[in-house]
Amino acid sequence: MRVGEISELICTPEYAYGASGSPPKIPPNSTLKFEVELIDYEKIADTTADKIKFATDRKLLGNEKFKAQKYESALNFYEKGLKFVESTWGVEDENEKKQFESLKLSILLNIAACCLKVKDFIKVKTACKKALEIDSKNVKAMFRLGSALAALNEFDESFETLEKARELDLEDKGICVEIENAKKLKAAFELKQKNLYARMVKGI
């Protein structure tokens, strides 16, 4: 079977629950039919080429799940793929090192996109900062990091990050929209803090 493939498995009574069955759901002498999907498998990556291939395969599977809006499943594939290219230790060929870094960057950005969807903003922050260690001018990483920081109420760093992204890509209107969203989040947060303080003072 290939990853993602679904097979039908039929078990006759002698290979299932036999004459006793499994009451109340399975009557005696029942033939059972199962659908089995191969989600993933673990294989030892002996060479650098293997690591690149396995990471790429899992990235592509993650992309399919992401498009299907199955974000947790997509994240699982991305994180497994990342393990194969997380370190370039022992990789001597410069072209292979570049492939590792490029693939690692792409997977980290995808992890950030997934985590934004499921509102795991701490993971978004971690993934984007790792991505920016590889490419300090990556606009996608800055955009996603800025969004996550605003959601975490870290507004100063959020504005700084989003402004850097805007300077690098003046034509991306989405960055301007995100800056305005961050401003609204900050205003709402400050109002909430102000009201909380007023209630505390009133209660003294």
UniProtKB/TrEMBL annotation:
InterPro entries: FKBP4/5/8-like, PPIase_dom_sf, PPIase_FKBP_dom, TPR-like_helical_dom_sf, TPR_rpt
Highest rank taxon of the organism: Eukaryota
TPR repeat residues: 139-172
Enzyme class: isomerase
Pfam families: FKBP_C, TPR_8
Keywords: Isomerase, Repeat, Rotamase, TPR repeat
Classification via SUPFAM superfamilies: FKBP-like (SSF54534), TPR-like (SSF48452)
Domain PPIase FKBP-type: 1-42
GO molecular function: peptidyl-prolyl cis-trans isomerase activity
Protein name, as recorded: peptidylprolyl isomerase
Species in which this protein is naturally found: Rozella allomycis (strain CSF55)
